[in-house]
Structures
1.
Amino acid sequence: MKINNCPFCSSENVENRTIEKPDKLPDGTPFKYKYEVLVCLDCDTITDVDKKNDTAYLAAHESAKKQYVDKICQDLSNKGWSMAYIERAFRLPQRTITRWKSQGCSASGMALMSLVGIMPWLAKIADHNYDQAIAAGEVIAQAGNLIVGAATSNDCTTTVKIYSSEKSLNIIAGIHKNQKSCAILSTEPQTDNIINTEYELLRA
Ligand SMILES: [Zn+2]
């Protein structure tokens, strides 16, 4: 239903305006959508006009989501991951990801693509029937890759310390970028004062 007067003060001194509103996808990718509003020139109240905005928002969101999925697929492809493999690993019907790229996907599809986008190796775990030992191995391998990657990069500093006693083995690794801690690995920081101090220093 079209509104012709201000719902707050009933004034007819109103104006239709189209404004652009910003929003963000789960990874922070910004997108904008057109938003029609009724501005009351007497009391400054801004009112959403006859629910058209829901449609505008959904269309803009759908389009942004397709681009988002497309970008994740390109990144995965550049890293050598095939969409066919990812579909097989997660037991998705063939060409599901292609359909998501061209027709958009549900919130659960977006969640899966977001996770696989930053952790493609999750597909390997799925491919091994979610085996716990394989999963643990992947996590350790990826943590190792992160530490090695940071240790060999120019703008990161890495500290790795291993404490072993008869009773326990503790590994502490910290990655710092621009003097700020960006990742800390610690097996059991709270069990020993020295280890705890070291852990807190790395976290600082
Ligand atoms: Zn008003």
2.
Amino acid sequence: MAAKIVAALVCMVVMLRLSEAAVYKVGESAGWTTIANVDYKLWASTKTFHIGDTVLFEYNPQFHNVMRVTHSMYRSCNSSKPISTFTTGNDSITLTNHGHHFFFCGVPGHCLAGQKLDLNVIHPASSTPLSDPPISSSSTSPPSTPTIPAAGVPGSSPSHAASLPSAAAAVVALFVSLVFADFAS
Ligand SMILES: *[C@@H]1O[C@H](CO)[C@@H](O)[C@H](O)[C@H]1NC(C)=O
Ligand SMILES: *[C@@H]1O[C@H](CO)[C@@H](O)[C@H](O)[C@H]1NC(C)=O
Ligand SMILES: [Cu+2]
């Protein structure tokens, strides 16, 4: 009984991770830049990041880079000791742990000009399929914020949006059938 529940739970977690892996291009079509006045904080607020998702930084490597930094370095735009640095201009970073991830461009002045990104990977426990509302279509406007956004960022739905509810339903059905089979026997 217990073993079956554990197996079902493991199966559920694995399936959810597979079905939820999404790729988010930072800044959408503008990419990672200072010239388009992208509000990266606003951009991140329109997304729900999960473990296994990927963020893609696209930029001209002659002018920019990507540094992953600590919170205090992020706050002060201090680029002296980055956790890691990316310089290809097409950097895919897979999110492997929950919590905040801080990035900025290490070129002098760019972080201060707003080329900085704080994204929060939500904890798996707070995103069970049963409590998640269905992901809405791209026709809805991004959530309003108390601050005045510098520039609108076009919202886009993650590519897995359509497949998620059916996959989740299948997993829940499997889980329920396993549990009830045990109660009946
Ligand atoms: C940046 O951080 C380093 C330690 O990581 C520190 O030694 C240095 O003083 C900081 N620079 C500024 C301008 O705060
Ligand atoms: C950037 O990398 C992604 C895969 O990580 C690839 O699909 C895309 O074509 C690349 N773009 C450029 C401009 O190289
Ligand atoms: Cu830059």
3.
Amino acid sequence: MGAGTSIVTNMRISRASLVLVFLLTALPATTSSAQIQAPPINGECIEIAKGYKCFYGPFKYSDVDQDGDLIFSGFVRPPDASGYITSMRAALEDADGGFVPRHAVHLHHAVWLNTRKPDMTCDNFIAPDLLPYLPDRFFATGKERTKIELPDGYGYHWDNKKIDGYPFLAPTWYMNTHLHWMHGDEPEEVYIRLNLGFTHDDEADGVTDVRPVWFDVDNCSDSEFDVPGPKDPGNNYKRTWDWTMPEGGRFVTLGGHLHDGGRRLKLFNRTTKEMVYVSRAKYGSKNPADSGWDLRKMSAYSADPGIDVAAGDVLRLTAVYDHSRAWKGVMGIMIGALVVEE
Ligand SMILES: [Cu+2]
């Protein structure tokens, strides 16, 4: 870990596991906790009406690898206050706050992790000097620019206090992102802007906390897989992952993340034999191949009281991809906001 203000590594994402990157960048070489130095924290959050705008970066063209890729994994600033996050969306900006076209710099994905809470679906991360759990993956976005809008009265709680015993960890988030400069050096640098709807604790009477649930067909790894191909047009490629709910409750939001070539993500309750939600990829044209498989959007769910699940229910996530050709390093992720049953 350098003394710089950002941790940028140019390794290929296909070899960079999120969990592994976290471990490597967050843990100093020494094993003595007394010698652990505070890691750099990237970015800042500015309070605006009803929330925060956070900026992370700069991510510079001068740091990309020979393929134009840039991977960042490191600690980032959360809002400097405790409260409930009620909505989340992210976009790329240039140094002047201008819009960065998708054909200039491609946001493969960005993931935010809350160091204050453990992740529900991945607990294979153990680094006692840092944290005895994988931080909570509470938001992810990519080309589809996932927007999370929790129904009124719900929020994801952020506790902006220090954690006893982990002095250098508080209060921070962790962020992993993969950016790709498509055709050269413009713009020279970009920032990731994260817009948060936010209700401060002292105004949050009656707000119900939600628990993120990360469904991922390549969970606890780098979340990436390849679709082998090509097959004949019209064929689909499917990849599944099962998760037994440790707690019951109701999902008030669900949103999906696929890459180009993705068709849909299905979350099916194998115990009740009911479909929980299908997040569909939207392309520029009805025939995605005509639009060059340029993914525009993923449908998302947000409603109160939401969709019931019981503790012990087995939920199956299926990522469905086009199989008319090979797709490299794609993903299939759905994040739900669960209101845990009392
Ligand atoms: Cu992705």
4.
Amino acid sequence: MADTLKTLKCPACGKDMEKVFIPSEGINLDICTQGCGGIYFDNREFQEFDEKDEDISKILEKISNRKFEQVDTTAERTCPNCGAKMVKNHSSVKQIVEVDECYSCGGKFLDRDELVKIRAEYNTEEERSADMLKHVYTAIGSQLEELDKRHAKSVTSRSSLQKLFLKLAGA
Ligand SMILES: [Zn+2]
Ligand SMILES: [Zn+2]
């Protein structure tokens, strides 16, 4: 999905979000500069900013050293781009920060201090992926074991069906 040029309403405080152009990426981010300091990323923008080696100075310029409205970060939010309900997910398997994600358009909303916290989780994209993979492998490993057990069972029931079939067929 491309950058949208329409003004988005902040999903946390309802104020109009400001389009902030990020020259290094050539994209516009939506930042709630008049309200709570939240940031909305579309589905491919976020990965350009979540690691320590990526430049967020333009974002920090907008959200540092200013007073922002306090918002309830646990409240349910609606995607400002497409109107779908957003879902809270941990930003990584470390489970430190919860991000609002839109499963419909892929957008993500971060409360003001969450970007900095997420960037502190890993040094590089590789470390983040490696940790995620480790987690996934552990989860898949136990699922495979379970599948193996079930499969073994279905093999036995299949062979007994086969015997019954052969018996009915008069073989
Ligand atoms: Zn806001
Ligand atoms: Zn959406």
